[in-house]
Amino acid sequence: MTPSDGEQPLYLRIAEGLKQQVADGTLAEGSRLPSEQKLAETWDAGRPTVRQALDALRREGVVVTQPNRGTFVRRTPPVQIRSSSRYRRPTTAGGETSPFANDADRSQAHPDWAWQTERVRAQEDIAARLGIATSDYVMRTRYVFTANGVPAQSSTSWEPYELVGGTPIEEPEGDGKIIGVIARMDSIGVNIDRVSEVVRARAATPAERFELQVPGDTWVLAIDRTHWATDHAVETATIVIPADRFALEYDIPIA
User: Fold this and answer.
1) Domains in the chain and their CATH numbers?
2) Who contacts 50 (Cβ-Cβ below 8 Å, separation ≥6)?
3) pLDDT (tens digit, 9 = 90+) per residue, 64-100?
4) Which residues pair with 197 in a beta bridge?
5) Regarding predicted confidence, which is higher, 97 or 208?
6) CB-count exposure of residue 129 (10 Å: 0-12, 13-18, 19+)
């Protein structure tokens, strides 16, 4: 079938029709789409045209295909607010100091994370962010954070080994008694007084798509964050969050 002038190709009309069914609830989140053959009969189209429509929906993140099971409407996690007020010292002894945990609590989600720490030499870009030499060692920790069991963000942090090496906080998670950069640095007498962030949007890498369980062509927000004590960078991290799962909220005091 050839579209007339100004008419959408049939595969796009099929894709738009299925998106409308998702929007109005005819196809609920997590539900299985009809088979390619059934869709072809419904739309009076060939199966190659239906595959084009499903490919378009996969690229947009509307559906996911599971091998040997079929194509399903993607479950969309609720949007969480990542607030600039997340960086603070606990007001009570033993208070929660993990910014991610605070964010999850506000969204009534259960937070958890896995990590791996190792001592490595700083690469050029990280050395520049920390104001150290590329030959200097840093403690590098890779994280994957989950909310209610669903991957929510990944992060890699770097801390100068000269600062934290040989202290009780050499490994960021340590014994788990002190969580959060600000509280950890307080425990060794380093007073963080500023946090800076630079936010960029980009396409997710294959590794990030796998870690965060997001479809192809997903865009992420990559946040380069640095904790400062006076004019010295004491920690820097790159945080990666799916752009469709988070909204950034800034509260900026005016002096």
Assistant:
1) 10-73 (1.10.10.10), 80-249 (3.40.1410.10)
2) 11, 14, 36, 39, 40, 43
3) 887 788 898 977 666 577 777 778 776 655 545 677 8
4) 225
5) 208
6) buried
